[in-house]
Batch of 3 targets.
Target 1
Amino acid sequence: MAIEKWLAITSVALFAMFAGEMISIYSYVVDPPENAIIDDSWFDSKIFQFISIGVAPAGILAAVPFFMTKQYGSKSIGGLIVAGGVILLVGMIVCYMMLDEIDDNYITNIVRFTPVLFMILSPAVIIVGAYLTKQKKVRPKKEFF
């Protein structure tokens, strides 16, 4: 496999990891253990940590294979990038649906708007991947003389 395919696979894995991390922290705050001490700064800092560990590198790792293959296109790489965008979208929809169950003491702007932000950004990832799947391979011109 070429390096761009491995980069696309890694970006899908990081998108899935970010969605899983966000769902797990939101579900933790929905039903915290009795002895847990949770303050809003802890919740916000964890969200920032997950963004910097998961979705920021995933976006970079999705952009690099796009730029490497945009001249000739690639159905498999485009499909992987689309899959990463879909995973991100579904994960953020699940997090957004959990917002109603979270105690109002834990709701901050970061908690409320992070799923919305990435729900808005995930169609861009899907469109980039779809562009790669539709791109036609450019044939080199034959020189007869």
Note: The chain has one domain: 3-134.
Target 2
Amino acid sequence: MKKIKNETALLKKAIEIGEKYAKNRGYKGFSGTDSAKQKIESLYRLLVHDKLVQPLAKDQENQLNMKHKLALWISKQLPEGHELLK
């Protein structure tokens, strides 16, 4: 797995956009007590279910790889020339 430039910032943006996407899909939303780990796994599973990201192999499903998948997903959603893609 190759590290993406600005991966941490992209992940933060992916969580932000992913939460809005989940709400639009009817998810009640995350509470203030939900950890980042819970949000990442929930968003990853929602995006896989909606076929917006390709699922990881069962033996590769871990927090690090889910974070990477979310960062890749959002990097493809952002417009060309966005500050996080530079």
Note: Residues 7-78 form a domain with the Four Helix Bundle (Hemerythrin (Met), subunit A) fold (CATH 1.20.120.1930).
Target 3
Amino acid sequence: MKNTVTILMRVVFGVIFLAHGISKLQMGLGNVAGWFDSIGLPGFLAYVVAWIELIGGIMLILGLLTRYVSVLLIIVLVGAIFTAKLPSGLLGNGQSAGYELDLAYILIALYLAVAGSSGLSLDRVLFRKGEQS
């Protein structure tokens, strides 16, 4: 049962981040870079974050390098909290979202970073690991 839940968590988490990456591409990475600039971050980070979300989402769905991708996503999420969401508070301020969902995502990513891919994954096929007892 734990294995099934881990697989579901990894795949759904991957779909969520794949969607975030696609969304940034659809907005236009130049526009996202402009928004990053407007909040005091270097615009090139928009490209980095978008590709981490897009490729990382695909890798999570496939169960490829799950632990490493999860750590990268934790870094992205902590960055989002401290650069964009912290001023809005935990639940948001009515104009922008808070960081409660980011905290939940961090916990999911932390679990995956510790637990690994589990079961149906390319990690298990390629590296013969990921199965936890």
Note: The mean pLDDT is 92.
